[in-house]
Amino acid sequence: MQPQDAELTSHELSRIVDFLRQLRAPFDANMPGGKPDVYFNITLELVDAHLRVSPIDKSGLISLADVPYSTGNRMILKMIEDGLIRQVPRGNGLKTHFLEPSDTLLNTFMDYATYVKGHLAKTFGLRRGMETSEYYFGGSYFASQIISPVRGEDISSINLGDIKFLLNDDNYFIAMRNMWSDFRNDFGKRSSFDLQRLPDLYTNTRRTLSEKSPRYDVVAMNMPWLGEFAERGELAPLDDLISDAAINALDFHPSVWGTGNWKGTQYGIPLYCTIEILAARKDLFESRGLAYPKTFDETIAAAREFHNPQDDFYGIAWNGQRGMPIANSFMFFLAACRTTVIDMPLRNQESWSFDTFEKLKLQIDTEDALEVIEYMKQLVEVSPPDIATMDWERRIHYFMSGQTALAYCWTMRAARFEHELSSRVARRVAYLPPPSRRMRRVSAPIGGFLLTIPAYVEPARQKQIIDAIAWMVSPEAMKEHVKNGFPVAPRFSVCADPEALASSPIVSMVDRMARKNELVTWARPPVPEFNLIERTLGEEIHDIVFNGKSPQRGLRDAENRILDAVRSAG
């Protein structure tokens, strides 16, 4: 067996382990003379525990392998002797050990899993001309067929009175409202949709859910807010509802699906995801024979090359406005340094869970943060003069109007470069991964919104509402949005649809980044205290970058203010 030319992500490997487990179990249980394969089962469970970063001891491993203790014990001892299992001391003076796969076992199993993936891809999932590496194990990849158009009867059959929505005021939600209203006619009035700017959305979401007043049936939740509202018990758990609805979790990129899961329970359904990338004027770079920037230093050098304030042309646009915008810029630049504001494993989660905040270690007053501050100050030198008040909308305007050579932007808003009639840069844009520090691995932050149901909604009505949500996140509805200029959908089937792929260069670019594990959800960790962290950073980072405050003092003050606020809250 030769290893296949297809890189595996940890999510894929985890799904392959489960696939092999589910495939083998019926054979062992039902075939005459069938019985568990001791080596096979122990290897599967050992690799699975390693992937989940869940320490396992000998008894636990034998139990999960579902084999007699004596048989399992002999196999484990032999695998230790053969150098396939490592023993890791528990610590604290204990003489017992945890078990983990050796590099030899893990690498050989990955070769086997890659072979399984490649064989199944060729059997079921590959379109003609598609490479095995382009197949993502576990996705709905029967996409040689084109997803059918949205049909009005799909939603008009849902027996509901008006559903009240609290949503973000952006172009995706406006389009979704219009589609819903068009198909629902008398049932879906535009007045049912309350669209609010992001800071106002947070304030009103907090008020609505805490007061338990049934003003809204569906609330759009910014992904990093999930921990706060789920931890307070203000969101309805959706697992049982999903099982009866037309929502296939396996069709979503696992890292995106995981943004809606808190402590093992699904509270939100991803409606759309958007990626922070770098947009560059392709025509300008090509005319000067310049390479696209891949690092902080290269970004500054490229921006200086084009910066010409005398002609009202600037190097780069980014979010410098006080508050949420600059706080997000700071966290995204930290992600490019492969770190984040909290000491935590840098891996996308299929379910978020954190210790109490008192046990978490902040990573704000650090050398990495000082480097980010220095980068931001250099960006100011090659930015438009109003950079200190520039938000998401303003940075898009600068780039789209042809006034900057580069712009950090969300992919959802970048779609306007190609589709708006006022755009002066259509077909002149290169869409690039966000630059890293010193050629480190690419870390492109994921943003977007989850559709959630408030806990105060009656259970019977929750079952009706989940059907409406299922329609809104269906492949048909998402594809319609992609074709209309919204380039990022979190479903495999939509990303693989030939018509969707042809609609925007951003779709295939983001899908490639997802397969290479370059999309990260940890840039803005959804701890319950996220809003406190974001609000504090929005003030302190702005004072450092624009108002002359010492970086060391400002970062130290940010950490102390956050910790003091948590202590004051009890």
Distinctive features:
two-stranded antiparallel ribbon; alpha/beta; single chain; globular; 570 residues
Shape: globular
Average pLDDT, rounded to a whole number, is 84
Structural class estimated from helices and strands: alpha/beta
Strand content: 5-15%
Unreliable stretches covering 5 or more consecutive residues: 1-6, 125-130, 139-157
Structure description:
The protein has helices at residues 10-30, 38-51, 58-65, 69-81, 103-125, 153-156, 171-184, 198-211, 226-231, 239-243, 254-257, 282-287, 296-306, 324-336, 367-381, 392-400, 411-414, 416-419, 459-472, 475-483, 492-496, 498-503, 505-515, 530-546, 551-568, and strands spanning 85-91, 94-101, 165-168, 193-196, 218-222, 261-262, 265-266, 269-281, 314-317, 404-410, 429-432, 444-452, 519-520. With 570 residues, it is α/β, with parallel strands linked by helices. Helix 24 (530-546) runs antiparallel to helix 25 (551-568). It is globular.
Helices and strands, with pairings:
Layout: H1 10-30, H2 38-51, H3 58-65, H4 69-81, E1 85-91, E2 94-101, H5 103-125, H6 153-156, E3 165-168, H7 171-184, E4 193-196, H8 198-211, E5 218-222, H9 226-231, H10 239-243, H11 254-257, E6 261-262, E7 265-266, E8 269-281, H12 282-287, H13 296-306, E9 314-317, H14 324-336, H15 367-381, H16 392-400, E10 404-410, H17 411-414, H18 416-419, E11 429-432, E12 444-452, H19 459-472, H20 475-483, H21 492-496, H22 498-503, H23 505-515, E13 519-520, H24 530-546, H25 551-568
Parallel strand pairs: 3-4, 3-5, 9-10, 12-13
Antiparallel strand pairs: 1-2, 5-12, 6-7, 8-10, 8-11, 8-12
Helix pairs in contact: 1-2, 2-3, 3-4, 14-24, 15-24, 24-25
